[in-house]
Amino acid sequence: MSLSSLSLFPATRAQVIESRRRSFKDWGRSYMTEETYLRRDADMDNDEHASNRKLTTWVLCSREDPESLEFKCSCETFLRRGLVLGRNSAQLDNNAPEQVSCYAIASVFTPERFRRRGHAKHMMRLLHWVLAPPSSLPSTFPEAWGLPPERPPWLAHGRFSALWSDVGHFYGSCGPSTTDAEGWVVRDAISTVWDVGSGDTDVDVGRGWKWLSASDVETLLSIDEQRIKVDMAATALASDAGETFFTFLPGQGVEKFQRRRLEHVWGKFKSVEYWGVVCESTEPGKTTATLDENTAMATWTFEMKTPTLVVTRLRAGKEKFVDLLSVLKFVARKHGMEKIEIWNLPEAHKGIAQDHGAVHMEREEHLSAFKWNGAEAPANVVWLNNEKFCWC
């Protein structure tokens, strides 16, 4: 079957279920039954990060039978909120980040019987033609691919998109044209990891520290988003001319996804009461509601393949980081975790982390990669807050 006979379509409900049945065999079998896997995903379809058409499943399927269950491959996209700010921005307020629509891409899957035929690559190339603004696409659609995919009228254009690759730099070759370029660029796929030894499971968190329940985390992240805007403006102001910055925002269920997807796993272990911690500023008049530069916070989830406390969102100055690390080690030990992992720890903290037993490493999976849908060269685009909270 030629590539021109295939196109990209939003999945029907039957195709969504079929795509999940397929991926279960590779991604879910070790952790749960197929019934549990399908029920979990169906339940999460109603969560804030996915509801109201924010989640779309796409299939590469025959143009003649677009609702067929014999589609070649599939993927998911999540519409999200992000911020963008250029060093020489033409915005009315040059220091104010612009809130934009953007996408996180997940669950790229081809069943064994359809692999090694270029189907996944073609699907990802076509994806640009439905997600990206027309101004960022080539002037003509490749003739060899037939007609371009029909773009649903309700679908927002994304200023940028990101995915987390388990197949190296493959997605870099999946651009919007027939050249093997202009796809998703891997950026800063660095983890900092501590081994958690045995130790005291009691900790004095000290004055000003507060444990966060799941609902507390959601409240704090809405405040954190306002601080992210302030931080981005300050970073852009201090940057080199010509640099452009972007970030995903962690609220509205985005960070929460990291826990929801693994409830079936951590729910079997010791009761988890807290999912974050915050240390308020000691300055007079400052509270958690301000999240100023002296505030430290972390949120987390648990991975069970190798029992690991994974920090999903981190905010901490150097002076509070050691105390925060002690809290993370306490939580990890309490719940039987063997490791702590933080994605893209700030450079200023890396020496401190090493002094306290950390190892910095480039990940071999979940490689963070972005596609910038703008005139700026990717080399001049900076991904801020490239942390675990935005993974999917």
Automatic annotation (TrEMBL):
Residues 207-392 form the LYC1 C-terminal domain. It comes from the Eukaryota. This is LYC1 C-terminal domain-containing protein. The lineage of its organism: Eukaryota, Fungi, Dikarya, Basidiomycota, Agaricomycotina.
